[in-house]
Structure formats: C-alpha cells, structure tokens
Amino acid sequence: MPSFPPVIFLLLVFIPSVLSAPVTSLTNDYYQETCPDFSKIVREVVTTTQGPQGRTAAGILRLFFHDCFLEGCDASVLIAKDALNKSERDDEINHSLTEETFEIVTRIKTALEKSCPGVVSCADILAQSTHEAVTMIGGPSYEVKLGRKDGCESKARKVGENLPLPNHTVHEMMSLFQKKGFTLKEMVALSGAHTIGIAHCKDFICRVTGPRPDLDIDAEYAEVLKSQCKDYTVVNETRGSFFDPVTPDKFDNMYYKNLENGRGLLASDNILFKDNSTRPFVELYANNQTVFFEDFARAMEKLGMVGVKVDKNGDVRLRCDNLNKPKEAILRV
C-alpha cells in the first residue's frame, strides 16, 4: 500500500482583526513593471513539479487555506521554527503539511529572486501558485489580485482551536466560516476542494471499524477503506485514501456525487449531504459542474482577500521560511 501526501482538508477560521483588506489595495497588474515574468515563473515551476493524482495541487491548496486561517493570507504558515519560537507549521495539526509543498514555494521564490530580487512576496507566491495548480488539473480559473505583503509573526499556539476537524458538524464548521465572512453555500463550494487529495486513515478509520461503525457509509466503500487501512498503525501511519476514488487526479464535481452515494470519506464530508441545510447545495453541485466551478471560483477570490497585509503592515521576505531581520525588511509603499 503506497503512502500518500496528507489530506487536503478545507480549513478556515476567523480572527476579527484580520478581515479582508480593501479590494483596491490589491491589483491584477501589481508586478507588471517590477516583475513582468511573475506569473510565467510561477506557472513553470508548478508545472514541472506537478505530481501524480493531483498531489501538487492538493498540497498547495491545503497550504493556502491553512495560511489564510489565522493571520490572513500572509505566508505565516511557511515560517520554520527556531530556538525562540514555535511557528504555525510546528503545531501538530500542521505536521501533515508536506515538505514537498514547502519546497515548491522555495523553488518559486528562488527563481523570482533571480529575476526580480526583493520584489515578490511569499504571500503572493502562495496565492498565484494555488491558482496555477488548480487550473492545471482541470479546475476553474479565477481572478488573483496581487500586492500582498508577508506577515511578521507565526505562532503555533494560535493554530489548534481555530481549525475544523474531520468529525465536525455543519454547525461547528459554519461557525468558523461565517465569522470569516462566508455563507453556507460558499462553505459547501469551498469543500469541493476535497475533489483532490487524500485523508490519512486515522481521520476516518473509526467510521468503518469498531463497535459502532457509521451506517451512513456505503458498505462496499467501507470494506475498501478497511482494506486500505489494515494495520496502518504498524506498517505505515501515512497510509490513506483518496477523497475521490473515482477521478482522484481531476478537479471536478465527483466529490459531490460521491457524497450522494454514501462515499464521503470524512464524517465532516458526509454530514454535508446528511444535513438538511447543506444537502441542496451538494445536490446542486453534483448535478451541475458549471455552477460548482463558478461558485468555487468566486469563493476562492474571496478567500484570497482575507486578512491580507499591505504597505507597512508587512514586508517582502528574503526567504519564505524565515522572518526578515530588521535590517533586511523590504517595504514597498
């Protein structure tokens, strides 16, 4: 049984002080004069590192969502720990973020520093690379405004209580999404990110084993999951299963069709179809991929504007995994 990269788990949380910056703060052509090859460089690196079964897209999507939760879309999730600080990526929940995905961001940053040193923020790299990764595997294109600055802190202690869990109810998830400014429909649309990626066995095995298995799950599907996760704690704890076992390498609406057929991998996936408040949106997207793509695109545009830093509220890091030293801070006003 092969090992998989971690789950692409749609996670959003709200911090009242980091609501979206004014739309006019970011622009489509922010790097037109200072780094005209920005989009081209990002696209080339993402293309050359795209792994099988949508691995690259899944990893980048998850990284982007995790970044935007706490301090807004400011690349704070990229910061590595040091002797004095445990960063966001060092919290146990974020241990599943793959080194492969962090390395992709590093490669993009290195290429951009050669072309236009000290200009492009890591936050903009994350936002643009997410768009490129999604569209490369068939997902919708959407507008990516640019001009974000990188955050100046990253604290592990802020992570845990702010992330939805695999067994959350609709009410629990919506309490986080709503505070972030998202509607119930937008929450279901963004959950469509689970059309790619995998979940680790530990996040769903209790649904198919033990004294009280989940009767909502399709019986045949449950047997497949049992087989995939057999002895995973002994053999390999990174074992897992695709969110969408039908078209795992394609961004489409199959995730919602699976929910209708009792093949939602996580309890938090299954509940979207079971709950009367979200079921109509699941059915809508299962029956109409065009509408799903349109709604997902709009929600991604909205997500990308959450809590961004501009001007002197942040800086442009020399390295995405390290905060700038005071004398290294690069400000663009």
Automatic annotation (TrEMBL):
<feature type="disulfide bond">
    <location>
        <begin position="201"/>
        <end position="229"/>
    </location>
</feature>
<feature type="site" description="Transition state stabilizer">
    <location>
        <position position="62"/>
    </location>
</feature>
<dbReference type="GO" id="GO:0005576">
    <property type="term" value="C:extracellular region"/>
</dbReference>
<keyword id="KW-0349">Heme</keyword>
<dbReference type="GO" id="GO:0042744">
    <property type="term" value="P:hydrogen peroxide catabolic process"/>
</dbReference>
<feature type="binding site">
    <location>
        <position position="164"/>
    </location>
    <ligand>
        <name>substrate</name>
    </ligand>
</feature>
<feature type="disulfide bond">
    <location>
        <begin position="122"/>
        <end position="320"/>
    </location>
</feature>
<feature type="binding site">
    <location>
        <position position="72"/>
    </location>
    <ligand>
        <name>Ca(2+) 1</name>
    </ligand>
</feature>
<dbReference type="Pfam" id="PF00141">
    <property type="entry name" value="peroxidase"/>
</dbReference>
<feature type="signal peptide">
    <location>
        <begin position="1"/>
        <end position="20"/>
    </location>
</feature>
<feature type="disulfide bond">
    <location>
        <begin position="68"/>
        <end position="73"/>
    </location>
</feature>
<feature type="binding site">
    <location>
        <position position="244"/>
    </location>
    <ligand>
        <name>Ca(2+) 2</name>
    </ligand>
</feature>
<keyword id="KW-0575">Peroxidase</keyword>
<dbReference type="GO" id="GO:0046872">
    <property type="term" value="F:metal ion binding"/>
</dbReference>
<feature type="binding site">
    <location>
        <position position="74"/>
    </location>
    <ligand>
        <name>Ca(2+) 1</name>
    </ligand>
</feature>
<feature type="disulfide bond">
    <location>
        <begin position="35"/>
        <end position="116"/>
    </location>
</feature>
<dbReference type="InterPro" id="IPR019794">
    <property type="entry name" value="Peroxidases_AS"/>
</dbReference>
<dbReference type="GO" id="GO:0020037">
    <property type="term" value="F:heme binding"/>
</dbReference>
<keyword id="KW-0732">Signal</keyword>
<keyword id="KW-0479">Metal-binding</keyword>
<feature type="binding site">
    <location>
        <position position="67"/>
    </location>
    <ligand>
        <name>Ca(2+) 1</name>
    </ligand>
</feature>
<keyword id="KW-0560">Oxidoreductase</keyword>
<keyword id="KW-0964">Secreted</keyword>
<dbReference type="GO" id="GO:0006979">
    <property type="term" value="P:response to oxidative stress"/>
</dbReference>
<feature type="binding site">
    <location>
        <position position="76"/>
    </location>
    <ligand>
        <name>Ca(2+) 1</name>
    </ligand>
</feature>
<protein>
    <recommendedName>
        <fullName>Peroxidase</fullName>
        <ecNumber>1.11.1.7</ecNumber>
    </recommendedName>
</protein>
<dbReference type="InterPro" id="IPR002016">
    <property type="entry name" value="Haem_peroxidase"/>
</dbReference>
<dbReference type="InterPro" id="IPR000823">
    <property type="entry name" value="Peroxidase_pln"/>
</dbReference>
<comment type="similarity">
    <text>Belongs to the peroxidase family. Ascorbate peroxidase subfamily.</text>
</comment>
<dbReference type="InterPro" id="IPR019793">
    <property type="entry name" value="Peroxidases_heam-ligand_BS"/>
</dbReference>
<feature type="domain" description="Plant heme peroxidase family profile">
    <location>
        <begin position="25"/>
        <end position="324"/>
    </location>
</feature>
<dbReference type="InterPro" id="IPR033905">
    <property type="entry name" value="Secretory_peroxidase"/>
</dbReference>
<feature type="binding site">
    <location>
        <position position="252"/>
    </location>
    <ligand>
        <name>Ca(2+) 2</name>
    </ligand>
</feature>
<feature type="active site" description="Proton acceptor">
    <location>
        <position position="66"/>
    </location>
</feature>
<keyword id="KW-0106">Calcium</keyword>
<feature type="binding site">
    <location>
        <position position="195"/>
    </location>
    <ligand>
        <name>Ca(2+) 2</name>
    </ligand>
</feature>
<keyword id="KW-1015">Disulfide bond</keyword>
<feature type="binding site" description="axial binding residue">
    <location>
        <position position="194"/>
    </location>
    <ligand>
        <name>heme b</name>
    </ligand>
</feature>
<comment type="function">
    <text>Removal of H(2)O(2), oxidation of toxic reductants, biosynthesis and degradation of lignin, suberization, auxin catabolism, response to environmental stresses such as wounding, pathogen attack and oxidative stress. These functions might be dependent on each isozyme/isoform in each plant tissue.</text>
</comment>
<feature type="binding site">
    <location>
        <position position="247"/>
    </location>
    <ligand>
        <name>Ca(2+) 2</name>
    </ligand>
</feature>
<keyword id="KW-0376">Hydrogen peroxide</keyword>
<feature type="binding site">
    <location>
        <position position="88"/>
    </location>
    <ligand>
        <name>Ca(2+) 1</name>
    </ligand>
</feature>
